Amino acid sequence: MAPEPDELEAVRSRLARLVSRTNAAADRLPEGVVAETRAICDVVRELLDHEERTSHTSVAAAQRYSLAATVDDYLPSSLDAYLALPASFLARQHTDQRAPGEELLAQLVLLHEAVRELADAVYSGDARRLSDQGRFLDTKFSGSDLELS
Fold it and tell me: What predicted TM-score, i.e. pTM, was given to this entire model?
């Protein structure tokens, strides 16, 4: 089932708010986090644009769910969990586990990889459809030894 245009616009709007929130908190985030967050958002935005451009035929329901979950849950949950930690805790040495900043960046790298894989799956499906169309046209319009004169 194709999403309603309003649904895509709603995800796009929530994505813009997430980027704004991240930019506003940039001074409280570790180095690399804002850039990684923006990179994730860029891939999501590209997929939303692609979905709109292809009249909602390229992105499957499960993929659409993953995009929305990235914007509404996965990405903000990681950022919010880090931002909830007091500066005094963040400044301490954490010897028994990864430092919170390292943990956040690792989660963002994982999310970025996941959305890139999602994009590759969507675009590979489109490329397969293009190739299938080419084979169909070749079969339909190329000469055949079986043609009757």
Answer: 0.84
